[in-house]
Amino acid sequence: MLRGLYDWTLSLAARKSAEWWLAFIAFVESSVFLVPADVLYLPMALSRPDRAYRYALVATVASVLGGIAGWFIGHYAYDAVARPILEFYGKYDEFEQLRASAGVGIELIVLMLITSGAAHLPPIKVVTILSGALGVNLLLFIVLAIVARGGRFLFLAWLLRRYGEPIREFIEKRLGLIAGAAAVALILLYILIKYAL
Description:
Blueprint: H1 2-11, H2 18-29, H3 38-47, H4 52-76, H5 78-88, H6 92-100, H7 106-119, H8 124-133, H9 138-163, H10 166-196
């Protein structure tokens, strides 16, 4: 099923309505959808490098709006909507462990938004729903989401404009690994500072 969703999302890049699809995928990725908007964003930006920043802006705005929707789902419709979504993706137990942690505070939400923005760790939908379920201040959440998601898409736009097609393989394979390692390092540093010092 995941491969089918991935292929379908990738196929949208060739359509005339690709920009609208990018906005839609970025929106639903932040609240309910499994496939990241990067799958659509990368081929679009590579085929039209002159529009890379425009596409980054579209993806950022839609992603933040989707994040707000995820926040509202977590805050107002946890049992009715959020729980079935998390169970469907196999993230419910992980989510409940995070939610039940006595130490979950704004610092952890900030860290998770950064790591999710950089490396999809954890998936953005988990962070947005968790933020709403924990009652994180909505205005603060929006600012953090703009920085995290905008940073990711604008950085990708810069890489694609500067290096073009040769950077695609690096972005698709190695950048995720590097960003994932950085995200893990940030999480370990947070744990060390919070609990060991």
